[in-house]
Amino acid sequence: MSDVKLVVRGVSKTFGSNGGCVRALEGVDLEVRDGEFVALLGPSGCGKTTLLRLVAGLDVPTEGEIVLDGKPVAGPGVDRGLVSQEYGLFPWLSVWGNIDFGLRLNDVPEEWRFKVVGDFVRLTGLSGFEDAYPSELSGGMKQRVALARTMVNDPEILLLDEPFGALDTQTRSLMQELLLDVWENKKKTVLLVTHDIEEAIFLADTVYVATSKPCSIKAKIKVNLPRPRTFSMKSSKKFIELRKSLHELIREESLKAMQPITNKAKKPLRSPTKRMTFSGFIKTTIYDIVIPR
Ligand SMILES: Nc1ncnc2c1ncn2[C@@H]1O[C@H](COP(=O)(O)OP(=O)(O)O)[C@@H](O)[C@H]1O
Ligand SMILES: [Mg+2]
Fold it and tell me: Which residues pair with 20 in a beta bridge?
């Protein structure tokens, strides 16, 4: 029996507008197995949020299909929990009220709500802050509330859209460890999108590397680091090797993504005779644009 939870098959997406069309996704194929932590890694603007919105059922593909637990995705549903950078907390509700919101809406019996919300408050390190309001919380705490609020509804798959992107490096790193604790405790299936190479390696079992826009899958990489993952693994040989290969793949795509603004440049981006640094590339780009011909 197959244990595949989510299948994205040949998915393309074109946005139409008065000014023309934007092709955001081009034949994306990926799958997430039950209980697996998958990361889609790609440069900014490549189409990651677009893909996650399609999986969440907030928009529809132009071509291809998305299947969750054997059923085609045809709209939003409680089987998918989406967490994004913007937290999306209700400012008029306390931490407890925010986490409890979905359960209350679904008429879950009070005794059960009390147990589940309490469980997630503890798991996300929010004990003592149950009565605080979002305006009184740091970014990291808000994101913990957002995570808990989504997870109490026990979705089949957790969709994470650069959830720690707005946080400082230290908080981000701690949040990654907290997310792994929660994931290991609850055995959830996760699809995370990120542009952060280290984040993808540290968290995921499998990393799909996306091309620049339109997004398609360039590589599928198994992260063979043991679990549970620990902070010290980030300096292990295996981690550093993986980071290096992913960095190469992503750099190629980031350079491609910058090409439209360099279309007057005569030189190739990568000269075989001269190694060009990234800052050198930027300088060359500006030079080629501003010098009159
Ligand atoms: N609703 C929309 N209408 C038109 N273009 C869109 C829309 N949503 C996203 N795009 C375009 O699709 C591309 C991919 O965007 P997005 O999925 O947000 O990228 P990422 O999340 O990887 O940064 C961008 O060029 C963006 O401008
Ligand atoms: Mg995005």
Answer: 17
Tell me the C-alpha distance between 266 and 286, whole Å: 12
* Residue 51 CA, closest ligand 1 atom number: 17
Q: How far is the CA of 50 from the centre of ligand 2 (A)?
A: 7
pTM of the model: 0.87
41 Cα to the center of ligand 2, angstroms: 11
Please work out whether the CB of residue 47 comes within 6 Å of at least one atom of ligand 1. yes
What domains can you pick out in the chain, each with its CATH number?
4-79+155-262 (3.40.50.300), 264-293 (no CATH)
- Give residue-wise pLDDT tens across range 43-89: 999 999 999 999 999 999 999 999 999 999 999 999 999 999 888 89
157-161 and 4-17 strand pairing: unpaired
Interval between CA 47 and ligand 1 midpoint (Å):
6
SS3 of 164-186: the string is CCCCCHHHHHHHHHHHHHHHHHH
Residues contacting residue 256 through CB under 8 Å, at least 6 positions apart: 211, 212
pLDDT tens digits for range 99-149: 999 999 999 999 999 999 999 999 999 999 999 999 999 999 999 999 999
* Closest residue by CA, ligand 1 atom 8: 50
> Is the separation of the CB atoms in 47 and 100 below 8 Å?
no
Contact yes or no for 114/100 (Cβ under 8 A): no
Ligand 1: residue whose CA is nearest its atom 7: 15
